Amino acid sequence: xxxxxxxxxxxxxxxxxxxxxxxxxxxxxxxxxxxxxxxxxxxxxxxxxxxxxxxxxxxxxxxxxxxxxxxxxxxxxxxxxxxxxxxxxxxxxxxxxxxxxxxxxxxxxxxxxxxxxxxxxxxxxxxxxxxxxxxxxxxxxxxxxxxxxxxxxxxxxxxxxxxxxxxxxxxxxxxxxxxxxxxxxxxxxxxxxxxxxxxxxxxxxxxxxxxxxxxxxxxxxxxxxxxxxxxxxxxxxxxxxxxxxxxxxxxxxxxxxxxxxxxxxxxxxxxxxxxxxxxxxxxxxxxxxxxxxxxxxxxxxxxxxxxxxxxxxxxxxxxxxxxxxxxxxxxxxxxxxxxxxxxxxxxxxxxxxxxxxxxxxxxxxxxxxxxxxxxxxxxxxxxxxxxxxxxxxxxxxxxxxxxxxxxxxxxxxxxxxxxxxxxxxxxxxxxxxxxxxxxxxxxxxxxxxxxxxxxxxxxxxxxxxxxxxxxxxxxxxxxxxxxxxxxxxxxxxxxxxxxxxxxxxxxxxxxxxxxxxxxxxxxxxxxxxxxxxxxxxxxxxxxxxxxxxxxxxxxxxxxxxxxxxxxxxxxxxxx
Length: 575
What we know:
With 575 residues, the protein is an alpha/beta fold. Helices cover 32% and strands 26% of the residues. It contains 16 helices and 27 strands. A hairpin with an 8-residue loop joins strand 26 and strand 27. It is elongated.
């Protein structure tokens, strides 16, 4: 191995920076650029001095026998297969979320979805019993443990504003204009002609004759013609489809009729306790209008759960748009629930609002899911409309972290085909983004407030610039809590990001981050040992080979033997 290096040090508190202009570096295949700072001395009082060390190293990294290859190698079976067949450049970066329902809840169906690329399984607590949800969660965990998948579990709370109606049939029902339907809180088995039951006994409180009842954001529309006790008799004024377990809302004089219920109902809190007990990875909070709702849930989880469960806020109301930035800052991620959102704002505003939400989430380094009606026609038909494919492509072009199937997978007959459409469309659009060099147009708001935070952010920004400019095959990052991996993802690099972590919660949380492939491995305090071993593990699996170029970002925490924290970028060529 040939190596040439130069090291300089400077004090942040006024010493001149290292001067590289008069140095000539040799030509080679490995470049290492590192910054170090003393975290112990950082107090934020403006009087401490901080050591900054910069190093440039040039050479060629040869493959060495690792001292030990034993230990867990937690690359999931789907990523390993994609890497083997497609190579680094062929790996899809947009994550895929599937809603699990009666059409895909068997072990075989769940395995097929996982093989098809499902990264997150969503469970909608509006439907099904807790026993049913428990069975699905345990099947997914069993598939992860026994088959080598890495599918995280998300629970979507019902929300006190959500009202559900069910006509009792197993598939959608066509609603004809002029037909009269009865909406009732009475619970009965099976189905009755022109009768639907709601999930809320007080659903008709405050509702008046003449109010409009909108199904699933406009799939069909009714006008209240008669109110008898708690029951409503409604006339269809806009024909369409009535899906099983459909959402509905009331409108009066062009405005949504709202209740005064809190964001989380009593049932929601019980569902959250259930999710904690079952060890889910994400909670998606419905109808978040203020950041306080998210903060309250995160505080509750910190006292009740031993694992780090992420909280996503669903943006589905006009009020949530008014408070968007504070909600994004308080949350661990965002879901753009376009169905309900499209009821509250004009339809023509949905595309620009979606793009604005995605942009703000990327600026604040929070993953964002685009949801609702992506491939709605595939609930009943085996192929999507061309407009739906264009819609999916646009979300990918905007660099959304994830796309979500709802009814397409939960109750549709072609859930696996719908997932394949998302997979193929995402991969093609990502390829176009790279060909057009679109990631170079991304500008980012500075997140860090303290010097250590700013250094970490700059390291990751520079690493992505280097990776794109040098055309490396992959980025390796070693992370405890996933923060550096998320900063790399925020920049939407061309190569995939392999995030090595020894924390299971971090691994599952990273399943939602764009372009990140999380691996569960044993990490030591010796950064070079971690790098050497992970490279050898990948090589032993045949996943990297001679000539591959890997950019490595590492963060060495201070120890008794090495009191200086050291963050570095290295480019390694496998020979």
